[in-house]
Amino acid sequence: MSVWVWIGVALLSGIGALARFLLVALVSARAAGTFPLGTFVVNITGALLLGLVTGLAVEGEALVLIGTATLGSYTTFSTWMLETERLTEDGELPVAAFNILLSLFVGVGAIALGRAIGMHI
Amino acid sequence: MPTRVVPDFHRHEVWAIFLGGAAGGLLRVWLSRSFASGATDWPWAIFVINVSGAFTLACIATWFRERPPESRFHHPLWTAGFCGTYTTFSTMQLEIFVLLQHDRYALAAGYALASILAGYLAIRLGTQLVRSERGDEQ
Hints:
The structure holds two protein chains of two kinds.
Chain A: H1 3-30, H2 37-55, H3 60-74, H4 78-89, H5 93-120
Chain B: H1 11-34, H2 44-65, H3 74-86, H4 90-101, H5 105-133
Helix pairs in contact in B: 1-3, 2-3, 2-5, 4-5
């Protein structure tokens, strides 16, 4: 990849991170209860968009920039795990298990749905 | 008074997230391209990235959270900025989906389960390590 693509990766990763930070703050400010809704919404919308991008047959450097850099940065694994572990520390075991299972199944479903939409556009 | 739609972020926080995100994203893209695996193989790159990023986040988040006052630059730079961006959920879900598409059901389930189990244990380990280092009550 050329140096311009790497610069693009850096810029788009920063923008993806900011979008996540903003959306998590927006959702968390409105969500009640212990379920980490902000990270869930970010991860599922990111999976849906990544499915859409692959359904549109985006490939090569464009896929690196939109998929791996932007959407890969927008979604997060580490925060999802940290929030889940903190829930188990607080004795919220059912919420922690729900957060894992729901994210996993809805996440794969979101990829499939996004891909199907992309292939039919 | 009108409801505030966009939360009021500190200028330092925005820069911290952007810079940490740029660095985390660069490192992930570089590692995942250097250690790319076939569509039907175990996705080692993202697995190692996610577990190592979870461990690092646990160490840093525990250190900052339990050591007030929080910095409005260094805390977001390393947590939501670097670690949040270095790790990824969407690429992992796409990899699981592709494995399922290729009828690699056991591999898909194994990858999902191992990522979650190792990620969870990495958080536990990082948290306990920092707490015991600081001599905190468990």
